[in-house]
Amino acid sequence: MVASLGALGRFATFSAVVLRSTLRPPWLVHETLSRCYVTTTRCLLPVIAVCGPFGMVMSLQGLEIFGLFGAERLLSGLVSVAILRELAPVLASVLVAAQGGSSCAAELGAMRIKEELDATEVMAVDSIGWHVVPRVLGLTLATPLLNVAGAASGLTGAFFTAVVMKGETAGVFMHELWALTSPADVWGGIAKTTVFGALIGLVASYHGYHATGGAAGVGKAVNDTVVRSVLVFIVVNYFLTSAFFGQLA
Amino acid sequence: MNTMRQAGAFAYFVWDWAMAVRRWGAPRAEIWREAFRIGVMSLPILLVIAAFVGTNLALQGFYAFRPLGGGRLVGMFVSLAGVRELGPIIAAAMVAAKAGTEMASQIGVMRIREQIDALEVMAVNPYAWLVTPRLVGIVLVLPALTVISIFTMLASGYLVAVFQLGLNGSTYLTFATQGITAMDFVYGMLKAVWFGMIICLVSCWYGFTCGRGPEGVGEATNRAVVTSAVVCVLSNYFLSEILYGGGP
């Protein structure tokens, strides 16, 4: 209990240090954008491959629920609300944690084990500003982009199952798609994923930066990163959903 | 092209493992230890995640159904979505993130420290010795974890529906039990068995093919969780189509 409180305090201190070096020049714009590019390209295929089938499953199960009331035409409204508000942000962030966050932790951990971070410090270069901040900002920028890609593939998957496989009418599907959603849902999803991306980046670089104990330590850092960042953003998600969407609809 | 080659190498790995099991069997004592480790280690995190997924299901169901005058149907929404889809998938994702990454990094570290070669030198088949206990363990515990996560989701959905959304508790429970049957639980557990096999085999394979040094272990761990999550979700669609689809 005390140990976990201590870890929480160290994480908060680390986050404050990262925030301070983010606000302070030099701003490594090119490095940040290239981190964002690497994360986006690496995660794009997994995000599409997870969100697409999830949209298909939602269509499949939704048709059955609405079939009980003979209201199949309402399907696409429900599916688009669920995908834009919850599924795409959460699934995209899970995949970013599993792919982008864990590779961030693995890279920083390997640099720590090989004493490259100490070498950076010896050369009077701020290792947090140089190695950590671009990664955190890169993840923060990449996650909303991946959320949009995930939402698009989820809606495409839902359309495919409902119209092509189950023979619903394409026109009705497209008409009802925007019946319950508004641009606020899209922006809410983007705002949520920006927060999730920053949390994933901080948790990942905290574990990578403080890795100890050789190759096994790097493996443990990656493991802890995936588990804890998912835990943190799922908990935060509940509060953000209540805050953003509680007054809508 | 590279993906195809990897898939082929993975198929060879599964084949080699199956042959090794047929020839050498499995260490019994290890099975219980692995099952205990996988189940108990993943349980706390799974409980928290499932609880918060349940709260969000209730919120979403409420906002989606309220414009149609169906705010009362929240219970049915939570139970259908939880039992059929999200329970198995969330349990699988958390076990992949917790136990799967640990399998990949443990076996990867054994590989780069040449402990696996040492096993072979001692005429112990590493596939039979390392993979089988983990596979049997995960197949034993993942269905149980799935059922636990389903009930956690229903309970947290109840709390949100009653205390945050102000709905009637007994209406929630009535609709929650109306939407599902016992067969849905059986199907969910079948899914969990399949997901467990995928997670274990994929994670162990990335461990065995781990590259050099700390980066190699990090890379293997990273790929293990991403690949097993993607394969689980992809195959989930086909499982749902077979189990619940019932034709066009």
Task: Provide the fold topology.
The complex is a heterodimer of chains A (249) and B (248).
Chain A: H1 2-23, H2 29-69, H3 75-113, H4 116-122, H5 127-165, H6 170-177, H7 183-209, H8 214-245
Chain B: H1 2-24, H2 28-65, H3 74-112, H4 115-121, H5 126-164, H6 169-178, H7 182-208, H8 213-245
Helix pairs in contact in B: 1-5, 2-3, 2-5, 3-5, 3-6, 3-7, 3-8, 5-6, 5-7, 7-8
What does this structure look like?
The complex is a heterodimer of chains A (249) and B (248). Chain A has eight helices and no strands. By secondary structure, chain A is mainly α. Chain A has one domain (29-245). In chain A, α1 (2-23) crosses α5. Chain A starts with a helix and ends with a helix. The model of chain A has no long low-confidence stretch (mean pLDDT 87). Chain B has eight helices and no strands. Chain B has one domain (27-236). Chain B starts with a helix and ends with a helix. Chain B has 248 residues and is an all-alpha fold. The chains are: A mainly alpha (249), B mainly alpha (248).
